[in-house]
Amino acid sequence: MPILLFDGHCNLCNAWVNFIIKKDPNKTILFASLQSLAGSRLLEEHKIDTNYIDSLVFIEKERFSVSSTAALRTLSYLSSWESQLKLLLVLPRPLRDFVYHFVARYRYKWFGRRSRFFWLFFLRIPQLGVIVIQSTHLITYQVNYIKTEESI
Fold first, then answer.
1. Alpha carbon distances (Å) from 75 to 23, 28, 36, 60, 140
2. pLDDT, tens digit, for every residue of 100-143?
3. I want to staple 121 with a disulfide (CB 3.0 to 4.6 A). Which of 2, 38, 98, 139 is the partner?
4. pTM greater than 0.85
5. What are the extents of the domains in the chain?
């Protein structure tokens, strides 16, 4: 299952994650904030600096993508019309990343920053699939069960 790592302090990034969750009815994509333990471990596993928070990181099996490519690869998994935006991958990456990094540079100024970051982690349990636990507060939890091939 693909995993999207995002800046948990960033309101724009959190809005992106909420958008993907709503548009991904099959629960194909898993999420973790870059600042979470799961995010740090995934960054380390893919030999990315664990202090990296400059862009989205999208992990698919053994490969990963960052910045505009990560955003567009994420869209490719959706079952809505937005998945067609993956066609923007034909644009030169430097051009796409220029626009991406311009927005990323001002994301806190334009969209705000959370003092407590949105975190989530996932557990893979063969009988149940994947349990995703997310929290924006220390006490409030939302648990989603995602069926995987292993749990069928």
1. 9, 11, 23, 13, 28
2. 999 999 998 999 887 655 445 444 444 444 444 444 433 333 44
3. 38
4. no
5. 3-151
